[in-house]
Amino acid sequence: MMSTKTYFITLVLLFLLKITHTADLQIKDSCSSVQLLGLFPKDMKNEVRQSVEWSIARSMFEVAILLARIYNMTFDGQCLGWQEVIAENEMSVMLTICEKLASNNIVGIIGPAASNDVRVISSFPSLLNIPMASYSATNPDRSDITVNEAFYRVVLSDRFAAFAISKLFQQFKWSSVSVIIQNDDYGYGGLKVLKDEFYSTSVHIINELDFEKKTDDFTAHDNWAEILSKSSSRIVLVWANENVTYSILKHALKENMTTSDFVWILTNEAPIDLFNQSEKKRLVGILAVIPVPGALVGVAVNSSLLADAEKICYEMNHQPCSVNNEVNNYALFAFDATWALILALHQHCSQNNHCLDFEKNVTNCFGVRYSSGTYYREILRESTNFLGVTGPVEFSNNSTDRLKGAYYLLKNLQIIGKTNGYSYVPAMNWSDTGTWFTVGYLFEKSSNQQLTERNCLNSTGVSIYYSTSSLVGFGSDFATTAAARVLIIGLYSVSVILVATYTANLSTFLALDRATPVISGIDDIINGKIPFERVGVIEGGATLEHYVNNVSLVYHPLRSKKEIFTMLQSKEIDAAITDNTTIVYETQTNYCDLIAVGRDFVKSSFRIAVSKTWLYKEDLNKNILKLRESGYMEHLAAEWFYQDKCQNDKIDPNPTNEITIEMMSGLLITFFLISLVAIVIHLWPTKEKINVDIMKPKV
What we know:
Keywords: Glycoprotein, Ion channel, Ion transport, Ligand-gated ion channel, Membrane, Postsynaptic cell membrane, Receptor, Signal, Synapse, Transmembrane, Transmembrane helix, Transport. The chain is of the alpha/beta class and 699 residues long. Helix 3 (90-103) crosses helix 4 and helix 6 crosses helix 7. 31% of the residues are buried.
């Protein structure tokens, strides 16, 4: 039987639990005057292929709002609350959003997660005059601010991913690829930007394969493996979400297409834990290019804000909001998207006494309008600039994307440690610099007998010496003393830099002197060496008539001759056709970065219009004929049209492409200092020996 004391303690605990639970329920209710609306997909716990934990993203959305309260941020005297929409498809999302907007004072929307949802609901923010900040949708067409003026996002569009992938292909000199996409907005949008980026880097897409999400199979399921097997390209790029990527890899394993004959590149990490041990072993080596927060590539983030967020998230859920000590990437993006709207709204309300006024003329969502939303969105685009948990966050008036924050990791699936576990290991990282950098790992000392017996400083110096000697192709065992090794490092460093400088100058000289244009004349255009839509032709006239009759009906229309050269310089077209005299004169006088190619392919004549009864008509004919026969016409043409001023401008009376002593002075001074260090190292033991001899007692 329960004692009175035990019963009393139980009642107290139940009472405290009730108070805590009630407080949790009133978190949103206590701040209902102004709210943010979060859009999240349903976290399908029964779906084995669900790798992104959207519940953590939801938690970080709520955490950002709770932190605003903890930091005592008020909005026209009110605290900030939230509403959430969790649905499985676009239509249910639209219906629920409309209900929330009609019955609550919503000043901003966070989300949605999927690119398909953005296409459907992106019209709501503009209609209500409120901003929408996405943390996961990457549609490239949503970067156009002219048609998406109320849309923002902290995760970069797929155009940046395609650009990073094209740079990766350039770096490894890959020239062709087969692309597999999921057949929806995300897949087709990715394919479009891939084509644009690959065209500029001369990478050819050999095969395009569609994967049907509903049927969980390829649209050409009977021959897709045969297409890849017979393809001239051994690189397969998969542009699909996590679940679809998993399905594609399962099909590839079934058809034995993941052998070393192919290089697989993914745009999302397939959940590796869902494969069995045999399948994991066959998948080792696949690559994944994924967007990441700045902290994973060494970019500064707001660590104190992140620590506060993780603490609140833990207190809310009674468990960490991180996996392997890392918060989910999209959860971090969700936090920064929410925090951006909070900071902008806080500034808006500090400058406007009526920052929470709404116009609600009807009961449905289409009659709701945020009165000062235009000013709110201007602040978000022009004044919001902060260091978030994913890196610097800032927007502009030119795009819906954040100005900075394009960070990607190239991960490689590998066996980790002695446990034979499998994981995606970072191999290279890419940021706004436009270059992929290798991520290096050095763990040699414990297994190298020559280093284990040395202290840390000594072993580091020996390691630098060995690696430098290997880089320059010199035997590291040649020198046996510390002074000699230091001197050799300096000597061979100077040698490498001198050879590299000379090679670079020689390569530049040869490249400039031997550069050839992409096409050699009209025949290359006829043969389709460049796309017809990138050939510029001026509307009207004989040139257009000849082009349409003899080349193609497809062309890029131009309005004037000046537009020929401006569009060539802006790379909107690759070639243009017009009269020879204009091209030669302009490329040799005003547009030195352009060149005239090909032979004349159409002859035309010009005549002078005069009156039929003009007395001097016969004299004019005779004098023109005389000028032609004497060669004076050719002399005038050469003087006014064929003088290459651009070539004269390139002739430098004081050429600076020579390697002078002054240019190399820094290198020589560095070598002198290294030599001085070597001398000091060489003489130091002698000094110690002299000191010892002095201290010895004389007998």
